[in-house]
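Archive maintenance. Older records in this collection stored only the sequence; we are now back-filling the structure field for every entry so that each record is complete. The fields below show one back-filled record exactly as it appears after the update. Entries are processed alphabetically, and O-Glycosyl hydrolase is next in the queue.

ARCHIVE ENTRY
Title: O-Glycosyl hydrolase
Organism field: Mucilaginibacter agri
Length field: 642
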Amino acid sequence: MINHIKFNTFRFMRHALLATAIIALAQTANAQAELQPWGNLTGIRKSGQLFEFESAISVVWKSEKNATETRKEEQQPKYTRAGKSQIVNTAIDSLILSETVTEAGNGKANINLTVTAKKDEAIQGVYFKLKLPASYSTMSVNGASPSPLSALNSTAKEVLFSAGNQQIKLSLDEPTSIIIEKSDNSFALLVPVQTGNMTTGQTASHELTLTVDGEINRNPVNIQLDAANQGRIFEGFGGNFRLQNPKTDPQVIDYCLDNMRVAWGRVEMPFAQWQPDENSDPLKQDPNTTLNPHVKASMEMAQRLQKIGMPIILTSWNAPKWAIIGEPKSRPKPGEQWGNPLNYQNIQTTYKSIADYIVYLKSNFGVDVTLFSFNESDLGINIRVTGKEHNELIKGLGAYFVSRGLKTKMLLGDNSDATTYEFIYPALNDPDAKQYIGAVSFHSWRGWDTPTLQKWADAAKKIDMPLIVGEGSIDAAAWNYPDIFQEQVYAIEEINLYMRLLSICQPVSILQWQLTADYSPLIGGGIFGNNEPLHPGQRFWNLKQLASTPKNVYAIGSKADAPNITCAALANKQTPDVAVHLVNNGPKRDIVVSGIPATGKKLVLYITSKKLSMKKKSNIKIVNGKASFTVPEVCFASLITE
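Back-filled structure field:
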């Protein structure tokens, strides 16, 4: 991925409790609108139930470009929260867009949109676009009798859309010309913020209100486990520890390692700093005097993790100039590819330098490297290879490791996303490569649909290797708008993905990006300019709760009978350990889990939500393999052997 001190524990916890109380007062329970940081609403909650839709800000051009909409990774937005308001500032070409979404009660949100032209623009208009789910089939304009949803170009002050017992109502301050478009089997409502050309400095704005209503589905949910269907081992939650922020990384690393079980660790090999001169002998460097400070810090990080007992993944994000073709680059110019290819005229020297690093790490810091990779080389961050070259690299470097007496194996993949799975196929299908592969790896930034994730599970099974989610999280651009890390929408989506990864992919570990200040699960401490006392946020408690899964359990079958419950279950036939994790992405409801394996241990329930921080409930009774309990709205719950 592009990456852009310990202190007295009692004093820290006092500050953390104070900061948590301040946040609870500032961000009340009215946080109902689900706003993505690029400006698109994905729904509004009422009593925890999400009434789903999608909005966007759309610019319709007079040119052949037709229309451009706000969407993930298409613009460079900034996201902030101010009390009950969420604010997104972004731009489409020279049009500066500002959107403020303010909570206005349970199931209701006010939206203010402003557009400002930095230069003259020939446009048909700028619109608030509401994309309706396919289930919505009727509409009522200005209080008229409901009619079938259809294309429309009319003046309205209120439009009500219905789908069975669910409703979405758009309210405007004054009658406005609106458009309802039909495309295939879907409909979209367009409300103009500006119509016609804009001149330099011109500003236009519009306010509207969205209200959702309908029956809240509080039906009990049944989760059935299938302990006989035992899958692959889960050794535990892991973390990335690439050092990038010397002032703020240590406090986050200390807190995470002191307060959760981290089973796997991934650290950086600063290749460019390790051997900048091709003709030098890096093994002669003195760790106390001549070793590059960043190299030394990275080696000490690996040492610290291994002393805790973690297997170590060593990953290189860069390489010295002599090892690559072209000037080193981390970001491409328009039309250019990412990263640099390896210089194959010097490939044997590259192999030697990497092996020297691993030998040095063992000799001077006592670290055995389990796996090695170039980070996201399918994309080129910052080393770029083809799938065929990746296969040759696995065989060439893997064989060189063997020649040096090293037990280090190669990661197959370590891909930027799940979507680029074809990158691993040459090595996956090459019998000569298997002996050098230690695990299969991908990063979870994109490609969350079940068929794509299943391809990775199938790949690992094909060569009988562990699968690792080398970088776990959900938005590779979130470092641009870090306030989103404190929002429930990010925390729930992230842990919901992890449940799906556990269930579908059955990885040996998911390694969080990162357990440092970059993508920090902690809040304050000067990170991202926030000077509150450092304290855990909802994301931290989610991760700690997942990390509380017993050691060395295996994925077992699990299925919920409700679409907004995501679950994953793990157990071990040889031990009494069990873990049932679930994300409730809806209202408060009763849960019944059946098929729990026999265990002589006590089962406890942990719940993390916007209001609860891994709250423990110990009075969970198991009768004939069945447990019944209640979970609050929008939460992460875990039933775990104590």
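Update note: Confidence is low (pLDDT under 50) at residues 3-30. The first helix runs from residue 9 to 26.
Entry marked complete.
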